[in-house]
Specification:
The protein has 649 residues and is α+β, with helices and mostly antiparallel strands. Helix content is 48%, strand content 14%. The protein has 17 helices and 16 strands. Strands 2, 3, 6, 7 and 10 form a five-stranded antiparallel beta sheet that branches. β11 and β12 form a beta hairpin. It is elongated and about 105 Å long. The N and C termini lie far apart (72 Å).
Amino acid sequence: MAMELLRRSSSRISESSGSAIALILLLFIHGAHSFYLPGVAPQDFEKGDELKVKVNKLTSIKTQLPYSYYSLPFIRPKKIVDSTENLGEVLRGDRIENAPYTFKMREAQMCNILGRVTLDAKTAKAFKEKIDDEYRVNMILDNLPLVVPIERVDQGSPSVVYQLGYHVGLKGQYEGSKEQKFFMHNHLSFIVRYHRDVQTDAARIVGFEVKPYSVKHEYEGEWSEKTRLTTCDPHTKRLVVSSATPQEVEQKKEIIFTYDVDFQESEVKWASRWDSYLLMSDNQIHWFSIVNSLMIVLFLSGMVAMIMLRTLYRDISRYNELETQEEAQEETGWKLVHGDVFRLPTNSDLLCVYVGTGVQCLGMVFVTMIFAMLGFLSPSNRGGLMTAMLLLWVFMGLFAGYASSRLYKMFKGTEWKRIAFRTAFLFPAVVSAIFFVLNALIWGQKSSGAVPFGTMFALIFLWFGISVPLVFVGGYIGFKKPAVDDPVKTNKIPRQIPEQAWYMNPVFSILIGGILPFGAVFIELFFILTSIWLNQFYYIFGFLFLVFVILIVTCAEITIVLCYFQLCSEDYLWWWRSYLTSGSSALYLFLYATFYFFTKLQITKMVSAMLYFGYMLIASYAFFVLTGTIGFYACLWFTRLIYSSVKID
C-alpha cells in the first residue's frame, strides 16, 4: 500500500523532482496506515455499484466565457444538486452538478434513452450559438475529466491524444447543398476504463472517454416511457457507430438524447491514470528549449562574473592606492559619485511600496512552486493552484510590510504606518479595479465565469481581514529593527550629472535590460499561455521552477551590469532605474501576449478580447513588480558591496 501510494503521489505530474518527492512523502507515510493528498484519494467499486457522473461547465477557446451545463436545454435530472467548489474552482468558472446519466460498475448499457426535447425558436438559437462558438461539454467521473480520444500518426507510428470534453455539436452541409446546417451530438458512447484487483475483485476507475455522435433517432407509434427506437436498439443489435444520418438543430425539431456505456479492463494502475491525460507530444522541444536557455544563462553568468570581478578588483585596487590629493581630484568612474550614490531617490515612498509588493509576489510564486512540485497542486486537485496562490498572497503580506518598512527606515523615514497602508492597498486596489470591470463584462454575458457575490465577499475578507493586518504587523517588525547604515556618507549638495552618451540614456538602457529576462522565459511562457487559453493541462512544475531560477539570475545579472555602467558614467540615480531595468521585461511579456492573441487564438468577440487583454494586463503588472524587485535588491547589494570596499576620505 505504501509503495503504491508513493507512486501515486509522485507520478508524471511532478516527474522532474520524483526522487526528492518520494523521500519526503515516505517520511509522511511512515507510521501511518494510510495517507492521501487532498482530493485524490482512491475509491474502490464493486460490481454493480452506482457511479456518480457529474457535469461541469461548457467551455470554448473562441469566447473564453464558460457557461453552466444546464444553461442549455439538455435533459435534466429530477433534482439538480450543486457540488461544493473550492475558491479556485469558482474563480475558474467551474459549476459542478449531478448528471442524468446512470452508470453501474462493470455493467454495460446500450442505447439508453435519456429523454427528448422539442426545440422552439429560443432553444434552437441557444444550441446554434454554442455550436457556432465550438463549445465543449465537460463531465467528471471519480474526479477524472471526460476526454475524447483522437488517433493520429506521429513519426510513422499511430498514437492517441486526448481532448477535454466533447463538442456540443458541429456545422456542415448536406450533400449537394451549400447551405450551412447545425447538428447536435445527441448520442454519447462512453467508455469507462478500470483496473481490477485480482484478490478482492474490486476495481478502480482509470479512464473516462466518450465518442459523440449526431443521430436522427426514429421510433414507431406515439412517444412513451417504453418507446423503443428503430435507430438504436440493443435487442435487434442495431447500435450507433457513425453520424451518417445526423440530428439537425432547427425550430420544432425533436431531439432524442441517448447514450451507451461500456466498461473495459485496463492494465493502467490508479497511480498512473493521469499519465495519458498529461502526455505531451512536444516534450523533446520543451526539454531542448529549457536546456538551451539554461546554458545561455550559465554562460552569461560566467562571463558577467569574470568581467565584473576583474574590472571591480582593478578599480578598487586603483582607488585605494590614490594617496595624494591631486590624484584623488583626478579620479574618475564610479568612486567619484560616492557622496551621492545613496542619496534619497525621488518618490522614495512609492519605491518602498513597490519593493514590498514585489517581495510579496516573489514569496507567493516560490512557495506555490514548491507545493506544486510536491504534487499537492496537480490537475487532479481542481482549483487547487489558484486557491493556493490567493492564500499565499494573503499570508505573504507579512513579508511585504517588513520589506517596505525596512527600506523606508533606510531612507530615514518615520511614518511607517503610511507606507504599510500604501503597501497593503496600492497593488491589490489596481488589480481589483481591473478585475471588477472584467467581472462586470462577464456578468453581462450571463457566464458562469462571473464571480458570485458570496465569493466576492470572501475575497474582500481575505484582503481586509487577513492581508492588511499582516502587512501592518510586518511593517511594525521591520521598522522597529535597527537600520543598516550606508557604507559612505552623502554630500549635502548633490553632484551635477554629466551629459550621458546615447547608449546610457535611461529609457534606452531600461528597455535593453528587459529583453534578456524575457528572452530566458518566453518559451515557457508559450506553454503557460497555451494551458490557460487553449484549455490544456500544465503540470511540468519542475521545468517551471528551473525557468524561475533562470529568471531570478538573469534579472539580477543584467541589472548589476547596467548599474555598474551607469555609475561609471557618473550617474548616481540608480534606485528607480535598477527597478525599471529588470521590471521592463513585463512590457515584452504584454507585447508577446498580444502577438499570441493574433497568431494562436481564434477569439472574435469584443468582450472575449477585453477579457484576454485585461487578465494579461494583470499578469504583466504582477510580473513587473516581481522582476523589478529582484533587480532592485541585486543592485542594492552590489552598490553597498563596492562602496564598502574602497577607502573614502
